[in-house]
Recover the amino acids of this structure.
């Protein structure tokens, strides 16, 4: 992704066939339903914002809704602030039986 792009729009990759996702550090916001219905998506790596490092500061609602193959979501920094989870990015996801 181009470094000038800071947001992934709502529904941008909905129902895509991607299998893994590495969000670049310059992305600040992921819109609602951005990857919803991407049933082949297995792993996601998301940077998150701290005081001195760029990264995602917000997730829209239902970002990963219906991603039935999703096994791993990795947040790349030391902690996840509660402000990142104020919406429901993981709505309607089944918990692992493990």
């Amino acid at each position: 992704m181009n470094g000038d792009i800071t947001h992934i729009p709502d529904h941008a990759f909905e129902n895509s066939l991607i299998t893994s996702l590495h969000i670049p550090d310059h992305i600040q916001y992921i819109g609602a339903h951005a990857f919803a219905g991407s049933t082949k998506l297995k792993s996601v790596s998301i940077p998150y914002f701290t005081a001195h490092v760029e990264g995602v500061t917000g997730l829209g609602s239902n970002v990963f809704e219906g991603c039935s193959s999703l096994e791993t979501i990795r947040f790349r920094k030391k902690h996840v602030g509660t402000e990142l989870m104020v919406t429901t990015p993981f709505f309607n996801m089944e918990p692992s039986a493990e």
User: Anything to note?
Assistant: Residues 82-88 have pLDDT under 50 and may be disordered.
